[in-house]
Amino acid sequence: MTSPISSITIPSIGSAPRIPLDHSGPLTSLASWFSKRVYGKVLDPLKVGLHHRGVLLSTLGLELAATRWKKLPKDLQALAVMASAQEIGCTWCLDFGYWESYHHGVHPEKLRQVPSWWTSEIYTPLERAVIEYSVAATHTPPTVTDEMVANLRQDLDDEQIVELTAWVSLENFRSRTNASMGLTGQGFKAECSV
User: Fold this and answer.
1) Taking every annotated instance into account, which residue ranges of this chain make up the domain Carboxymuconolactone decarboxylase-like (predicted)?
2) What's this model's pTM, rounded to 2 decimal places?
């Protein structure tokens, strides 16, 4: 395994978004209503997306399509997503990802220990391999090795590895967008029972 050394700086909670999050109009009203109904609040990435209808609709379409990816077990998907968000330093994605994974039954301690995955004893060898691969795929440029993929192939089939890679790529899109826009956590993790 390669060393997970990362020198990221995570923005502090409460820093200001880099573009305004207030909008008005029929699409804003509909999107806000739906977001509040599903998540209890209007998601800040949705507010950002409302600045560009084409980007918003394309992103929502991709997110909807990704809900049909079901080959990779949910816990491995969650660890991959959280590892990528951690590597990029997106506090919004870490906050929301924890909440979402928690509500899908992923073990909360495994989610909490993603930042220290390298030394944590909680992960199975497969989970550790998934996190290592996700971190390496998130590096710029990616540092994935043949050995990492061979290690994954001991437990995952090719279809699952493709899906794993797609989840990492999707989370890179989310995290890089949200972090670049200055979005930080909205308090989702705090709503989860411990």
Assistant:
1) 66-132
2) 0.89
